[in-house]
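Checked the freezer inventory, then went back to the computational side. Two predictions to log before the end of the day. The first one is the construct we discussed on Monday; recording sequence and tokens without edits.
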Amino acid sequence: MAGKIIIIGAGPSGLGAAYRLRELEYKDWQIYEKNDYVGGLSASFKDDKGFTWDIGGHVIFSHYEYFDNLLEKFLNKDYLEHRRKAYIWMMKRWIPYPFQNNIRYLPKKEAWECLMGLLSASRRKTAAVANFKEWILATFGEGIAQYFMLPHNLKAWSYPLEEMSYSWTGEGVSVVDFKKALRNFFFLREDISWGPHGIFKFPLCGGTGEIFRRFIPLLKDHLFLDKEITSIDIEKRQVISNSQDKIPYDVLINTMPLDKFIKIAGLTKFLGVANKLRHNGVLVVGLGFKKNAFSDKCWVYFPEGNCPFYRITYFSNYSPHNVPGGGYSSLICETAYSEFKPPDTDKIVEDTILGLINTGILSVDDRKHIVSTYLIDAEYAYPIPTLDRDNALDVIQPYLKQKNIYSCGRFGSWKYELANTDYCLMQGVEAVDGILAGNK
């Protein structure tokens, strides 16, 4: 028997682990969450004006039958299904997402430069590339890199692309070859089908967080909210909470950020390695309007410098229950920050409104229709796949495994390429299967 299992964090990974333990009828476990709510970065909040807000533009799609079945069980029929309508706004025009598949929408000069850049890239001899920036240039050529890929990624990551790996790009970036781009250009084909979230689900009520709130009745005897783990004694196998409770464990499932875990566990020998794990933050600005929806789009990317945000979501389009009633609408706008571009929380709401006006999403007159503003500071938003990341993880994770500690989830595993909601939940499920059944 595994003995007592403690789970730190009730985000998707922690809840996935907890649900799997209950599903397998295992009794000796507890889950601790520092907040008074569950869901982690997938939580949702309702403001005093009746608007629901997510921590960014979440959509639900899946790579796993297990996750699909769980979603159907928890939501029953309480969800909507949408076909993605995603765009880029640049050069004062709409370009369907992904950009590199739809360069026919550019002005002729810029479209020609993108096509010639792709042609040059396709003719180049394969050469080793050292970082994400070099990969972009080698894969797409100068045109697409200059007009979209470099400015967009720099804005979204808020981190030097020369210091990032490209190992994560498999499902994260659409790669288009020259022949396909040329065919789309001359035959005026709109190429919008790329990606796993072409069709996605969204809860009817309560935002993305509603999915995870529905775990609570099943886990309530084992779930402890407002209980932050502040210290860990790995040798004694006990965790200490903010109320000074000393809780023993035999196996630990960790989903808190790995760099924080190293610090509170007193693993000083790994502090230097943990410092190589970098992340960005995102300021999420929600704007609620007493006005009908501005568009039927789902989300839009903004690579240019005339606005602070890299993406907006037409959030009221995801469900009519995200707003107080008919005649209302809402936008979620995301601005990334890091040590290379510090946040300005005092100005971000006003800067966001000005950016929406600059880009034509709002008119100056639309200001008077704003009836709610909501700001969320997601300090840990995305784990950055830096050049040093994998080496750091190769040192930390095997040591933790030897100590019966399974660190998983968006920031527990520190892998952006495994950070989608379904991946995170399944990491928790698979951690339990590894603990109880020895599965990989």
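The second is the one RB wanted added to the comparison set:
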Amino acid sequence: MHRRQSILLVGALALGSVPTPVLEDVAPLTSPGSLVNPTSSTPVQMWNERVLLDMTGLLMPEPRVHVVATFRMRNTATSEQRIRVRFPLQHPEGSDPIEDLSIEVDFAPVPTTDVLEPSYWQEADNPIHWAAFDVAFPIGTDVIITAQYHIRPRQFERDVDVDYVLETGAGWFGPIESAQIVVRLPYRNCMATCISYAPSWPSPSYHGEMATWTRWNLDPTRGDNFRITLLSPSVWSEILRLETAAANHVAAPEDYMTLADDYRSLGIYRDVSIVRPDLVRLADTTMRRGLAAYPESAELAAWAADRAFFTWSMILGTAALDGRNPTTGELAELRSIRHVLRQLLLLYPEDTRLQQNMWFVERYPWPTVLAP
């Protein structure tokens, strides 16, 4: 039940595999074989970048994400600039190319040429495919470049990843004045239960099914590349079914167990550290809902005791890995778990495993001063 947690918070998001990129910034092509880098001499600035990732296609039999990327370009020189522009079609380490690419300049379609050139990651060994096209940048008039295409998200047992690589935009003059990444979400309640995203980006704003991330004066590096992780459609369908059953008071004890385990596995990275505390709390809340609905179920009680102690261990383990004492919120969670275990021990005083867990819990040295 434990997912491949692709976040961010652990700084990897990669876990030893190459992510599938959704899209990457357009970049100036100064000469054949040149790498895109911040020292490019072009006077054209990427004034604004807006990316729409329509994730509703995840619900289709063959999941695909529709991407629309719009770049507002501004010539800062005193003469017209004619530049050959390229758009990366693959991840810097190579991958299946994006699909159905179309490029427009000032809303008019333009032809592209497929070129095979070095990756923008200098450590990558193999060249990658780019779509190259010519653009004229007049004085005093912004030029709008629009790229549309589809990408197949990288799918795992319990989640899907979609990437947007911004680092190629560093080849333009100056910083990107403003950058927005807009995601059309496929699931309701997604804000609470199914999103993780790159830590270099601030919290998004929400409007209906749309989530928007915004950054200003961005001189993008690899650390600014964006990734969003959503629950896989099958996991979301299971959660939705079980939540509906619980809301209608027809959920069985095993339904509460499965639902709580779904939430917990999504919030904990490989049984080592908590990366989504909100989902771990939701798992514990679900566990207590099940106990309230079936107070006489010995199976549910034994399961709840094991999961409660597991969460206790995860909270303390995460704090230890961070080299700190538990926070005020984590101490509140620990006290709540201790209360649950005490109540279960009153109901099942002969349970040997529960007695053993309580032995550890009752001997915890509660800190009086919290570390920062």
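For RB: The two ends are 33 Å apart (CA to CA). The mean pLDDT is 81. Let me know if you want it refolded.
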